[in-house]
What we know:
By secondary structure, the protein is α+β, with helices and mostly antiparallel strands. The chain folds into two domains: 100 residues, no CATH class; 53 residues, no CATH class. It is built from four helices and six strands; from the N terminus they run βαβββββααα.
Amino acid sequence: MKLDNQFFRNIDSEVLQKGEVDVVVTVKRNATDFELRFDIQGVIQVPCNRCLDDMALDVAVKEHFFVKFGKEYAEEDDNVVIVPEEEGAINVAWFLYEFVALAIPIKHVHPAGKCNKMMSAKLRKHIAKVASDDDNEEDDDSFDIEDDITSDGDTVEIDPRWNELKKLIE
């Protein structure tokens, strides 16, 4: 089956609204339950954390859970779902959405130089670097906005007072 933009719009989530994802569902019947295995691969569109433009993100997920019959619907734990016997069916749409949404990394940004130039310039204008207590230690979560701005005529004039303040850090 294929999850497309319409599927993600129908889920009505703010996080994920576009994508082309292929899903293979394998159902294995056991003595007391059913085992559902999901192989999910495709590309989703998410907003870049830095410039807010959409970016393509590859997704590859393998998940599984067990379905048992019972009196009422319940999720016993992460891998066991109870379905009422009189219904005898389970809608896996929300599970598919969750599998894809949980595959999105916390930080998702365009590769260097690919962010929206105007947004990067505005962001650069408002970023101030702070000297850390330990000058040798680098913060892994920080990003270098310089990587996103190329000198193709879109130069941003920097207030000369900042250059004087930078000398204090060095």
